[in-house]
């Protein structure tokens, strides 16, 4: 997951004298964020009016503070990224790129879009599709950015909107570089857009940090030492770890991203059983059982770890490190990131959980889930956040890369869970065209029935990453999982044989 190469510097784009120049925060301007471009697709089983979508977005980005989202990305003489915010937007310098496709057919009659799910009725996890099959419906074919340099060398907005319309459904797709925001920043944007669409502009929050990051200096004087500091990898260990990643990608060149749905019934049953097992283990050890708790996210992290370690070679004593993306907004409220303002940037890092290969193999999911919960409780405090971010920033300033914790031969598993962003609950009902049908039958619904993400990574691999898009209206979880192709072949064979039993 960590890049070890950097691209050649792009040709600079001339500055516009009337632009407002704002530096990116240290959490935005990282090599990993530079190297990752993302596209998010929301499927609606309703006909949405593209004109209403555009008018509401135009109105939102015309607000004095929200126009920051129309900033162009530039690199200064020190090599740092900065925003150049136009004084105003027009046809020559729009706030966002907009493209549209229209098909005068039902979505089920389109050769590609007909494969896009709009629900799930199975009772076990299922590997459904490759999300890259739908890239042609998520962005325009020609001229779409594929590298951060495409933003730096052109006067291109960072935010893109692509709408694909059918006679009974609509696909709304947004694109951005990861330097722009994280999942919770994207949530703030969608909440403000839908509020504007509904004529509820009083619900649009003012921006936090229009011209300066509120995160500057918050971790300069941590009250505690970071608990994982003794596990920090040395430079030789980092080299060994990087060489192992390189060997993995060199020896097993093919990787594949698949959309997996985990049904609500499976999550509920697995979590209930896991809590029972943890309470039984605590009672047997003479420990209190009150307050034992697991979240759906704990179960998803443990489930992904169990799945992967069943299908790749893992040494019995080999360390398995689960890296859970961890958002800061709750911990930094109300003083630094108050809930009364929208923070549209990256404010997240990682919480690490460590296990041994034989322990994952020999214990039920409850074991790994319990350790994930324990690490979140121990490391997910304000004091530990300040301590870890201080170390992150020092390492990034010195080397350009974040520190790692564990050992040089550990197996890294990355989990990025967007469930708290509640993308499936975003309500675009005011844009529904009256009198039009729904692909699901009945009254059209203005909330997404399916969400997926596609990423373009440059310089590093997304292998062994589990990205959770969220929980749909039926309680099913949707994931994008990137693994070796051979690992997917093994998983598919195991799942198909189990289904056939």
TrEMBL record:
Xref: InterPro entries: CAT-like_dom_sf
A Pfam match: Transferase
Protein name per UniProt: Uncharacterized protein
């Amino acid at each position: 997951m960590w890049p070890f190469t950097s691209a050649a510097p792009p040709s600079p784009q001339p500055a516009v004298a009337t632009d407002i120049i704002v530096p990116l925060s240290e959490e935005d301007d990282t090599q990993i964020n530079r190297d990752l471009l993302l596209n998010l697709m929301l499927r609606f089983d309703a006909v949405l009016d593209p004109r209403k979508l555009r008018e509401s977005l135009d109105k939102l980005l015309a607000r004095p503070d929200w126009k920051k989202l129309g900033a162009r990305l530039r690199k200064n003489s020190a090599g740092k990224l900065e925003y150049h915010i136009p004084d105003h937007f027009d046809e020559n310098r729009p706030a966002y790129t907009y493209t549209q496709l229209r098909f005068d057919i039902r979505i089920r009659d389109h050769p590609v879009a007909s494969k896009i799910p709009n629900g799930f009725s199975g009772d076990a996890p299922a590997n459904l599709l490759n999300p890259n099959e739908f890239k042609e419906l998520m962005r325009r074919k020609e001229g779409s950015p594929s590298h951060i340099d495409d933003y730096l060398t052109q006067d291109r907005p960072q935010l893109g909107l692509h709408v694909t319309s059918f006679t009974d459904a609509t696909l709304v797709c947004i694109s951005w570089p990861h330097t722009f925001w994280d999942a919770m920043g994207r949530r703030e944007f969608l909440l403000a857009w839908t509020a504007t669409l509904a004529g509820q502009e009083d619900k649009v929050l003012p921006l936090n940090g229009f011209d300066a990051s509120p995160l500057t200096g918050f971790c300069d004087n941590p009250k505690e030492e970071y608990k994982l500091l003794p596990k920090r990898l040395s430079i030789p260990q980092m080299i060994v770890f990087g060489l192992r990643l390189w060997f993995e990608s060199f020896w097993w060149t093919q990787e594949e991203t698949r959309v997996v749905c985990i049904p609500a019934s499976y999550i509920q049953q697995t979590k209930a059983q896991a809590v029972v097992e943890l309470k039984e283990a605590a009672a047997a050890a003479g420990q209190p059982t009150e307050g034992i708790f697991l979240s759906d996210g704990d179960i998803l992290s443990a489930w992904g770890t169990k799945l992967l370690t069943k299908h790749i070679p893992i040494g019995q004593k080999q360390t398995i490190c689960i890296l859970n993306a961890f958002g800061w907004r709750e911990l930094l409220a109300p003083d630094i990131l108050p809930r009364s303002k929208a923070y549209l940037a990256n404010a997240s890092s990682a919480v690490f959980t460590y296990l041994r290969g034989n322990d994952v193999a020999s214990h039920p999911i409850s074991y790994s889930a319990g350790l994930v919960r324990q690490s979140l409780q121990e490391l997910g405090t304000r004091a530990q956040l300040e301590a870890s971010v201080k170390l992150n920033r020092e390492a990034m300033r010195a080397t350009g890369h974040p520190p790692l914790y564990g050992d040089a031969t550990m197996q890294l598993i990355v989990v990025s869970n967007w469930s708290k962003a509640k993308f499936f609950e975003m309500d675009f009902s005011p844009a529904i065209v009256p009198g039009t049908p729904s692909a699901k039958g009945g009254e059209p619904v203005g909330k997404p029935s399916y969400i997926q993400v596609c990423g373009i990574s440059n310089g590093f691999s997304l292998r062994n990453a589990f990205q959770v898009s969220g929980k749909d209206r039926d309680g099913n979880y949707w994931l994008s999982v990137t693994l070796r192709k051979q690992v997917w072949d093994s998983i598919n064979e195991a799942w198909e044989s189990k289904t056939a039993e």
